[in-house]
Write a structure and sequence with these properties.
By secondary structure, the chain is an alpha/beta fold. It is built from 13 helices and 11 strands. It has an 8-stranded parallel β-sheet. Strands 7-11-10 form a 3-stranded antiparallel β-sheet, with helices on one face. Helix 3 packs parallel to helix 4, helix 4 runs parallel beside helix 5 and helix 8 crosses helix 13. The radius of gyration is 20 Å and the shape is globular.
């Protein structure tokens, strides 16, 4: 029996699983594969330096799937910020009805999208930020625990607490993000009050993910201890795969006398991180990965993965219902 939640009903998907918006990875190939599997695939807008590139990728995705998919627009600090509203306009022009937002000061973009009838999923790492997003009119919150890959926030609150706090305090449906890879995790998230899960690293390690096979193998071999947090000194804490470059960056971060970001910048170059996914050398540059690597043991297709997660979640929930068996008569 399909798992039906607020997420599946409102988004028109069949399994309450969302593919995280990932830089360099959230392309039409991956997004369409997740959507065709019954989840919600997401194209990452800022992979393309100009909005027109996003337009072409959306059109490509429409040829690969007839099912709903979304676009991620993440607003991050930059000396020369992208034209976020132009990306939002492309989303509207192309008839996309679901957008995942994240980052700083998303109000103007969210307002523009809401006026066009777009459903907004907004990612937050704290309840305080989630409450602010609710005031902006978001439809769903994606609650990111400290376990997650990439930007973890500065509060270090793990999902077991964060999700329960969300259940107690929020009046908007929420998705659990960070640390999810299987159906048991989905079942746990549903029990804690979530209406689905968001997975990034797990979808990074699938057949359709547009990265070198060596990186997928590195994820399979990794343990939950193989990540590191960098850039805390600059209040931009980021969870990355623990390789030599990351270790060197941490040394600079600890030992810098000036605290100038320019000292660490060469180590955390996004350009080198992108090359990792192309050349297949996990030591070449920094790349994001979550602690959930310790739970990932294979490289399935998106279809096989989503089907397996749905089956595991259903079996787990049914099994736990046996705890309510009638007491035996003495």
């Amino acid at each position: 029996m399909p798992l039906q939640t607020e997420l599946t009903r409102r988004l028109g998907i069949t399994v309450p699983v969302v593919q995280g918006g990932m830089q360099h990875v959230g392309t039409a190939e991956l997004a369409s594969a997740v959507s065709n599997a019954g989840g919600l695939g997401i194209i990452t807008a800022l992979i393309w330096p100009e909005p027109e590139g996003l337009r072409q990728e959306i059109r490509k995705c429409k040829k690969l799937t007839t099912r709903p998919f979304a676009v991620n627009i993440t607003l991050l600090p930059a000396l020369v910020p992208p034209d976020y509203e132009a990306y939002a306009q492309v989303v509207i022009d192309e008839g996309i009805k679901i957008v995942e937002t994240a980052g700083n000061s998303p109000g103007p973009v969210i307002s523009k999208l809401k006026k066009a009838g777009v459903i907004i999923l907004h990612k937050c790492t704290t309840i305080r930020h989630a409450q602010s997003a609710v005031k902006l009119g978001v439809d769903f919150l994606s609650i990111d625990g400290f376990e997650c890959a990439g930007h973890v926030g500065e509060s270090d609150i793990t999902n077991f607490i964060l999700l329960s706090k969300a259940r107690q305090t929020l009046n908007v449906p929420f998705i659990a993000s960070g640390g999810f890879a299987d159906g048991q995790g989905l079942a746990a998230a549903l029990m804690l009050g979530a209406c689905g899960v968001n997975m990034g690293t797990r979808f990074l390690c699938t057949v359709e993910a547009p990265i070198h096979h060596n990186i997928k193998e590195a994820i399979v071999k990794a343990q939950e201890t193989d990540t590191a947090l960098v850039l805390r000194r600059w209040r931009n804490t980021t969870r990355l795969f623990k390789n030599k470059v990351v270790k060197d960056a941490l040394k600079v971060e600890r030992e810098s006398k000036t605290g100038e970001f320019s000292e660490i910048a060469p180590y955390v170059s996004g350009k080198r991180g992108k090359e990792v996914f192309i050349n297949g050398d996990p030591e070449y540059g920094v790349w994001t990965a979550g602690q959930v690597m310790g739970l990932i043991n294979d490289i399935p297709t998106c279809k096989d993965l989503v089907t397996r997660i749905e089956k595991e979640a259903e079996e787990t929930i049914k099994d736990k219902l046996k705890l309510f068996a009638a007491p035996s008569k003495l």
